[in-house]
Amino acid sequence: MTKNLQATTTLYNGVKMPWFGLGVFKVEEGPELVHAVKFAIKQGYHSIDTAAIYGNEEGVGQAIREAINEYGITRDELFITSKVWNSDLDYEATIAAYEASLKKLGLDYLDLYLIHWPVENKFIEAWRVLETLYKEGRVRAIGVSNFQVHHLEKLMQVAVVKPMVNQVEYHPRLTQQEVKAFCDRNGIQFEAWSPLMQGQLFDNPLLKELANKYNKTVAQVILRWDLQNGVVTIPKSTKEHRIIENASIFDFELSKEDMNKISGLNENHRVGPDPDNFDF
């Protein structure tokens, strides 16, 4: 299993994607964001996940440039993800959205570009753009976010290039077993957003008990559970001690029994929108 923060999973097209990264959802543009991203890179994080709708691609880009200049890291060591928003899912708009994200980030290419939500009657056309960008070598991998099985099936009926990643809400109270099994069967890497359920799991008695058992925090136990389930994870934090703590999960292993106990917390409970019922 993954031994360190730079450990990678290999996507089906051969691109290596870090198992662990930093998410920046709801982190506003400004010094706090720039500092958090730079600090994470300095600590050994190589993967940063943003999105057009987060409104912080410029700050992420600034942090990347400063980190490259100051820490001797190179662009090709980093894995940068962004996502196209729902209002930009027709052909011309998706191309423009990609260009805009690249410009804000100040990058020549993205490592991973995702369709953010499965907007009916729109995501297939947008996927054709992602396929084109991929074939032109302007993005190293393409994928989707928040897709359920039926969305993936519909997409894969017409896709020339199948998605490499599906990033979904995933935590011990929402294990998405059906979607995960489908992705596993089809060679699509599963990735978790909101892995810590926005802090709502920190008082869970079972997780607290396991944290004591392994001499770790509840957050570390959950993130380790992600990795041992073969799920890429991108916890968000702007606090230095949390950025360090979240990544300190490569020196222990959960037993099979404890893994199953954590999975047993599933209640199909979402903190984010329902991919089958959203209106934005």
Q: TL;DR of this structure?
A:
The protein is an alpha/beta fold and 280 residues long.
CATH topology: TIM Barrel
Strand order of the largest sheet: 3-4-5-6-7-8-9-10
The end-to-end distance, rounded to whole angstroms, is 39 Å
H-E order = EEEHEHEHEHEHEHEHHEHH
Give the fraction of residues assigned to helices: 25-40%
Structural class: alpha/beta
What is the 3D form? globular
Summed up, the helix count is 10
Write a structural description.
The chain is α/β, with parallel strands linked by helices and 280 residues long. The protein has one domain (8-199, 231-238): NADP-dependent oxidoreductase domain (TIM Barrel). It is 40% helix and 15% strand. It has helices at residues 31-42, 57-71, 91-105, 123-135, 149-158, 177-185, 205-214, 218-228, 240-247, 256-263; strands at 8-10, 16-18, 22-23, 47-49, 79-84, 110-115, 139-145, 165-169, 189-193, 232-233. Strands 3-4-5-6-7-8-9-10 form an eight-stranded parallel beta sheet. A hairpin with a 5-residue loop joins strand 1 and strand 2 (16-18). Helix 2 packs across helix 3 (91-105), helix 3 (91-105) crosses helix 4 and helix 7 (205-214) crosses helix 8 (218-228). The longest helix is centred in the first third of the chain and has 15 residues, at 57-71. The chain is globular.
